[in-house]
């Protein structure tokens, strides 16, 4: 599970370091097997949309069941670009997990 750092208290279990100073500063994560998560988020193709969603929309999160977007206050005319971002993150996560 990956959350904005402001939500660290919501994690079940101890947060793990992701091996990136930028990621570790902006998001917190927990995983049953940290060895599976670290290489995934180290991939720039994953890290960029992950940060854009989780850090850009602090109530959003990424978990075992997918991406949860919480973007309160967004204007409807901007929703297309936001949904594209979430779809990009979902696609890259699916691709990386399928290849791994």
The structural class is: alpha+beta
Shape annotation: globular
Number of strands: 4
State the strand order across the main sheet: 2-1-3-4
Q: Mean of residue pLDDT?
A: 86
Q: Helical segment tally? A: 4
Helical residues, percent: 40-55%
What radius of gyration results from the CA coordinates? Answer: 13 Å
Strand content: 5-15%
Termini, distance in Å? Answer: 18 Å
Query: Ranges with pLDDT <50 over ≥5 residues?
Result: none
The H-and-E topology, N to C, reads as EHEHHEEH
**Largest sheet, described in full?**
4 strands, antiparallel
List keywords for this structure.
4 strands; single chain; 4 helices; 100 residues; alpha+beta; four-stranded antiparallel beta sheet
Write the layout of secondary structure elements.
Layout: E1 2-4, H1 21-26, E2 27-29, H2 34-42, H3 44-54, E3 61-63, E4 66-68, H4 79-99
Helix pairs in contact: 3-4
Quick structural gist:
With 100 residues, this protein is α+β, with helices and mostly antiparallel strands. Helix content is 47%, strand content 12%.
Can you offer a commentary on this structure?
The chain is an alpha+beta fold and 100 residues long. 47% of the residues lie in helices and 12% in strands. The protein is built from four helices and four strands. It has helices spanning 21-26, 34-42, 44-54, 79-99; strands at residues 2-4, 27-29, 61-63, 66-68. Strands 2-1-3-4 form a four-stranded antiparallel sheet. Helix 3 (44-54) runs antiparallel to helix 4. The radius of gyration is 13 Å and the shape is globular. The chain starts with a strand and ends with a helix. The mean pLDDT is 86.
